[in-house]
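Supplementary Methods S3. Complex input for the uridine-5'-diphosphate-bound model.
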Amino acid sequence: KFSSAHRLGFGSANPTSKIPLGLKRKGLRIVVTGGAGFVGSHLVDRLIARGDSVIVVDNFFTGRKQNVMHHFGNPNFELIRHDVVEPLLLEVDQIYHLACPASPVHYKFNPVKTIISFILLQNLITGLLQACLAKRVGARFLLTSTSEVYGDPLQHPQKETYWGNVNPIGVRSCYDEGKRTAETLTMDYHRGAGVEVRIARIFNTYGPRMCIDDGRVVSNFVAQAIRKEPLTVYGDGKQTRSFQYVSDLVEGLMRLMEGEHIGPFNLGNPGEFTMLELAEVVQETIDPNAKIEFRPNTEDDPHKRKPDISRAKELLGWEPKVSLRKGLPLMVSDFRQRIFGDHKEGSN
Ligand code: NAD
Ligand code: UDP
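Predicted complex, serialized as structure tokens:
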């Protein structure tokens, strides 16, 4: 059911594949698309700390220079302002592809651009393939897919073998179907052109550097509690999500990239919370007096979501370490600083 390590037809296999994480080896050249965003910037920090050379490609739609500016002046760091729907030729060892508006508010903002950008992912992979041929070494492409490929799941918890329950014509389809298309393209390039690929299905992730006003539930509740505003619970608040702290995700992404298995792998924390329970944790962590205000829910909101992570445990030796109650306080000081500090949110 899993492909074993796939050797490219046009060069040596990836040089890192046999080296366990953390061991010293020659630095790689790595592209992180969307590297100025929330998850991407944490990944960049880990890669730079490991001694790799990192090129961030970002159009700053939701990302910010502030997330990576601590690397400015480091010869191992480069930042390119570029929209990934346009072709880009870079000779690199690995591509972590994260560029994509991730919050429902952002991906619904221009849904046609969202769905088209997934189809144009072809440009990025073709560029990678040409660069591989030019350099005559294998390079790896890691796609950050999402738990949204399961839609409003009829299987609970969700295993990677589940094909999902997605509305193809709904308001979330530009993202859900887009990511499904991206998985299809990634696998077709693997099967048809021998590109070495990895696929991660990421479940709801939170932590410092999330966009403060991007509408996602954790960033909304934390910002609302800090600003002494009511926590806005959509619908009856009984829908569930499983929240993962960002450092756990970054560890999982790196293990997946360096490992021998294509995936897809669920990367998420199996701790499942209703939105009302999440609101309680935010009250306990930030302000016990924070009020709750109910608002109408959005269309096609999935009722429940929880990853089965047995596959990642067994094959990547990975599981999350940070519980919601431990992780939430770790993002509060960053949010307080950005909300009350003189730093201007959203400025590039
Ligand atoms: P984010 O919005 O903070 O980061 C996305 C980054 O991509 C931003 O820096 C943005 O400017 C950049 N970007 C967007 N479109 C681009 C384009 N066309 N060209 C170049 N750059 C572009 O979001 P995030 O939470 O860090 O998510 C990163 C990835 O992980 C996304 O692909 C997302 O779909 C996936 N994911 C995230 C979560 C989560 O809970 N955070 C869950 C599932 C999947
Ligand atoms: N949600 C909420 N209040 C908010 C924002 C979101 O109750 O202020 C709910 C939303 O309806 C959904 C859940 O929180 O059921 C997770 O929403 P989010 O946008 O964070 O992620 P996704 O729906 O993509 O999993």
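Confidence is low (pLDDT under 50) at residues 1-19, 343-348. Residues 33-34, 36-40, 58-63, 83-85, 98-102, 117, 144, 146, 202, 204-205, 211 surround nicotinamide-adenine-dinucleotide (ligand 1) (CB under 6 Å).
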